[in-house]
Amino acid sequence: xxxxxxxxxxxxxxLAKEDGYTRLKDDFKGYLAGTVFFKxxxxxxxxxxxxxxxxxEGIKRNIKEDGFSVEEKIDGYNVRVAMVGGEVFAFTRAxxxxxxxxxxxxxxxxxxxxxxxxxxxxxxxxNTPFTPPTDGFDFRFYVFDFMKEKTILPFDEKQKxxxxxxxxxVPFLGKxxxxxxPWKKLREIASFLNKGKSEGMVIKALSGKExxxxxxxxxxxxxxxxxxxxxxxxxxxxxxxxxxxxxxxxEEFGMDVEEYKKRLGDAFYSSLLEGIKQLKKEGVVRxxxxxxxxxxxxxxxxxxxxxxxxxIEISDVYKxxxxxxxxxxxxxxYRKTTEKLRRFLSGYAIQD
Length: 352
Prior knowledge:
The protein is α+β, with helices and mostly antiparallel strands. It contains eleven helices and 17 strands.
């Protein structure tokens, strides 16, 4: 009854009914977007993390506490994992059940039995429905936080749980205090991450109450290289924001601007031309993915989720047996980019 009352107090336009649960589409009073309501359980949305554009000043302004930790930002997709009714479920940022991660992370069941009410927050990478395939490993789940109700657990409690249960953690880069003027060391870390083409860093107050993220220009350029060929399917501002924040990094760190000009231009043009050539050859602009699942029903659930998208079309599905697993290869066709490039290459004109 308590949870029903809470849902009734939220305007219906902010809620989405799913199979067996309701999710919150937008922030509402004390609830964050992505909050999930089951009959007797609430899985709260993960707090928004602000992005800073300058390292020292950004930390000083946004992290009020003296002590903070720094972790590497992993380029994957974010899920919250919880046990509901004796089953392990992974939820996307938006609060949707993600069937691939739910199957892969079922090994966390014992953790949840021993830590009721805890939600595990982490990043999925590897052969998933949303990240580029890899031959080096199947998948990895990097833990970056634990939540209890709306609260992010403090640093020491998080490290204790990670160590006790031998969980894979996002790379930990150190603990610092603003009062000790750690800015030179942090600049060295940022430069190191940039050279290694890592996505960036997440800076968190030791209490868990504040966090900001800082991204490297190499990661921004790589994002552009991977996605410019899907130009008409990318969110508004996707490219502008990455160019702008990489420029600020170059200025702050006194980097070789001429080198990055060439790399940025190459990233844009190479990717765009790749998309155009693919359309000419295959008739579509598409991207290939690969997953390995234990059960046929898991793939069916993944496919059901993907085919609901208005932006993409799933094609070229090929399945095979690999030991006890089922391998699935499939393509995502990007509808807007495919349609617009077809029209442009067929001679259609637009009015500027």
